[in-house]
Amino acid sequence: MARVTIDDLWLKDDDDGNPPSATARRSLANARDPQKARVPEKWRSNRYGSGMRWRCRWFVVKPDGTKQSKTKAFDKLCDAEEFQAALEDDIRRGRYIDPNADQRLFRDVADQWIETKLDIKPSTLGRYQRELRVYINPTWGDKTLREITLKDLQSWVTGLQKGDYKAELPVNKKGVMRKPKPLSARSIRNIVKVVMAAVFEYAITNKWIRENLAKQVVTPKIETKDEDMVFLTVPEVELLADTAADNGRDVDGLLIRFLAYTGVRINEALALQIQDLDFKGRKARIRRTWSDDGNGKMQLGTPKNGEARTIALPGSLIAQLEKLAEDQSKSEFLFRAKRGGYIHDHNWRTRVWYPTVKAVGMEDEGVNIHSLRHTYASIAIANGADVKTLQKQLGHATASITLDIYAALWPERLNEVADAVDQARLDGIAKAKEEAEKAKAKAAAKFKKAESGIGHDELDKAA
């Protein structure tokens, strides 16, 4: 059984091994000044009257199997006894938390947590490291786990929303660090509810703290509104594509059409190799994507949800796509830079996308690359696509994600459903009535036949 011993740091046994008398203990307990208590010198320890009197002492078993002594001091015996009871119960039930374990710096715990992230994509790891370095550690890195309170965390979240927070931001062209800006609800959620909460969870797993404060903090609500998403019309897509081709290359216009009429993410499209396309079957295999390795370099990895998928290609683009693939090896990228090789999406945005959006007068309308993906979804839904089909084409992990984003685009069919239910009711009533009439007629015929038979029998008996 786990034991926690309470030591009296002010009193000791005398040289003959005799413990302090009850009279001496009573006198010390009743004295306001321990030096004036009637306690003989032989029972006074070296610490008599100095510091906290009571000490709880226990042992814990370290991961290597060795025992380590732990202590905690108290002014009052009742507090020590309360701690003793609670700690012994925690040890028995496997809930033991080292009272000093929360003295670790948040920065050190976060570093240890990062080292365990061996099963995630480099781009995700890079994002975690960036959010720790830029947003979290400037405020919390040098604080111990014990010093972080729910109240302070909530104030920090409010600061993130208002742009009032410490941050390690890059410097501008003049060498001055940029000022913090208000963060979006989604960014705050990722920083607090994903990264910071995961660090706390790691600390809980290691029994350094008991609760995850980051999960208790209230963060701004993420609202996905129709007005936040831009849906282009087909003529607008064509205008963007034609303008990009006129001011750049034909492949630039084709890439815009490809994104708008297939719904794939730009770095999925730029990672396509010619061997991934089946022109006759009008299919393409999305099995890779370009992503940041966390250090600003692009590398090929699995798609966002970690799974490859097959998408359908619009027939009107097949001829142009085949022309891009003409005389190229199967391992060559479909969309290629002017001198060959892959297209870096950041460079393409700067060189082609932004100038094109400005040239057609859409720079103030919230149009971005992702608008092409939204446009595909809106066109597909308007033309009868169901949620599962759209999920597979877009590469969402679940159909619920698709619904969360695009539910408002599906036409309301409440009246249709009500009419269908009503018609089913009327059909059911009519069918039941018809069957009842048939049963009634059948019963009447049977009764009539039976009545006729009973009449003859009665006459025979009477005779």
From TrEMBL:
InterPro entries: CB, DNA_brk_join_enz, Integrase-like_cat_sf, Integrase_catalytic, Integrase_recombinase_N, Integrase_SAM-like_N, Tyrosine_recombinase_XerCD
Domain Tyr recombinase as annotated: residue spans: 227-419
CDD domains associated with the record: INT_ICEBs1_C_like
Composition-biased stretches (Basic and acidic residues): 1-12
Residue ranges that the Swiss-Prot or TrEMBL entry lists as coiled coil: 426-453
Region (Disordered): 1-40
Domain Core-binding (CB): 104-203
Keywords: Coiled coil, DNA integration, DNA recombination, DNA-binding
Cross-referenced Pfam families: Phage_int_SAM_3 (PF14659), Phage_integrase (PF00589)
Tagged with keyword Nucleotidyltransferase: no
UniProt family annotation: Belongs to the 'phage' integrase family.
Name recorded for this polypeptide: Site-specific integrase
Organism this protein belongs to: Bifidobacterium amazonense
Phylogenetic classification of the source organism: Bacteria, Bacillati, Actinomycetota, Actinomycetes, Bifidobacteriales
